[in-house]
Amino acid sequence: MGWTVRDIPDLKGRTAVVTGAGSGLGYVTARELARRGARTVLACRSQRSGQDALERLFGEVPEARAEMQLLDLADLASVRAFALEWGDRRLDLLINNAGLMAVPYAETADGFEMHFGVNHLGHFALTGLLLDRLVASPGSRVVTVSSLLHLIADVDLRDLNSQRRYRRWVAYGRSRTANLLFTHELARRLRGRDVVAVAVHPGWADPGPPARGRRGRPTRLAHRLVAAPPEVGATPSLYAATAPAIAPDSFTGPSVLGARTPRGGPGGPWRAPWTRNARTAAHLWRASEELTGVRWEG
C-alpha cells in the first residue's frame, strides 16, 4: 500500500503557509496539515472565501490552530504586505499552491501576464521574502505546485510575458515550466542548508475555482468524468511537505499505470529535460529578481 495522508507525522510545533487555501487543493492541503497539529495559515486572495474556508476548517478539525491572512499573488504590494505582517514568526512549510489555468489574456497589478505573474512571479517574490524565516527553521520545506502540462512549452526568456503572441495554454505551460526551473535553482542555492525545495503536480484533479480558468464544453465534460477530487490531488503536496528524506528538486505527482503506489499517492512523474537546465534556471531567476525587486543573497 502506498503513502496516504494517514502517514503524515505529528506536526505540532510546526507552522505552515498554504497559498490559495480558500478552496480545492489548497484547502485540503491546509486542512490536513492542521489536522496533524501544524499551525496553519490559509493565504487567500478573497476575505470572504478565506473566512468561509477557515470556518469550514474549524468545523472539520475543531482542534485546529489556523488563521487566514490575505494574499493576492497578482499584486506584489499584497505579497510584500503579507511578508511584512509575517515579521519574524517561525515558518517551517511554505506550500506555493495557488494558480491560474488557461485564462484569457490579462495582466497583474504590476503589468505582468497573468499566468506568469501569479503562478511564478508571485510565488517567487513570496518565497524570497520569507526565505530567511524558512532558513531559520531546521527541516523546513518549500513545496511549489506545478503541472504535467509544463510539457506544453519551455519558458521563452525573450518573451516572458507572452507579448508577441498569446496562447493561453502555452502561457500556462510556460508558467508551470517556470515553477520547475525556480525549484531547480532554489534547490541549488539552498545546498548546505536545512531547507528542501521540491515541486509537485496534482495530476488531473479538481484544483478549485481560482485555478479552473475557462474551459470549452468537451473539456468541462471530461473534467467531470475523469478529474480526481481535491483530496486526491492534494496528496502529492502533503507527501512532499511531510514525508521523510524527500530529495531536493524532486518532482512528485500521483502515480500512473505501472507505478508502485496507488492513484493519488506519491510517484516520480516524467519531467521535461528543459526544467533542469541550469543556465535557463539562472537566467529566469535573475529576470525574476529584476521584475519583482525581490532578492535573496543566499
Quick take:
About 40% of the residues lie in helices and about 15% in strands. The protein is α/β, with parallel strands linked by helices and about 300 residues long.
Would you mind describing this structure in some detail?
This protein has 298 residues and is an alpha/beta fold. It has a single domain (5-292), classed as Rossmann fold. It contains 10 helices and 8 strands. The protein has helices at 24-35, 47-60, 76-86, 114-135, 168-189, 209-212, 217-226, 230-233, 235-242, 278-292; strands at 15-19, 39-44, 66-70, 93-96, 140-145, 195-200, 251-254, 266-267. The chain has an 8-stranded mixed β-sheet, sandwiched between helices. Helix 1 (24-35) links the parallel strand 1 (15-19) and strand 2 (39-44). Helix 4 packs across helix 10 (278-292) and helix 5 crosses helix 10.
Summary keywords:
298 residues; alpha/beta; Rossmann fold; 8-stranded mixed beta sheet; 8 strands; 13% strand; globular; oxidoreductase; SDR_fam; oxidoreductase activity
Give the tally of β-strands: 8
The span between the termini is 40 Å
Number of helices: 10
What Rg, in angstroms, do the CA atoms define? Answer: 17 Å
Main sheet: strands, sense, barrel:
8 strands, mixed
CATH superfamily: NAD(P)-binding Rossmann-like Domain
Which regions are unreliable across 5 or more consecutive residues at pLDDT < 50?
211-223, 257-265
Query: Which word captures the global form?
Result: globular
Order of helices and strands: EHEHEHEHEHEHHHHEEH
Helix content: 40-55%
The portion of residues forming beta strands comes to: 5-15%
The CATH architecture = 3-Layer(aba) Sandwich
Name the average pLDDT.
90
Q: Indicate how many domains the architecture comprises.
A: 1
Question: Briefly, what CATH class?
Answer: Alpha Beta
Strand order of the largest sheet: 3-2-1-4-5-6-7-8
What oligomeric state is this? single chain
Structural class based on helices, strands and sheet pairing: alpha/beta
CATH topology: Rossmann fold
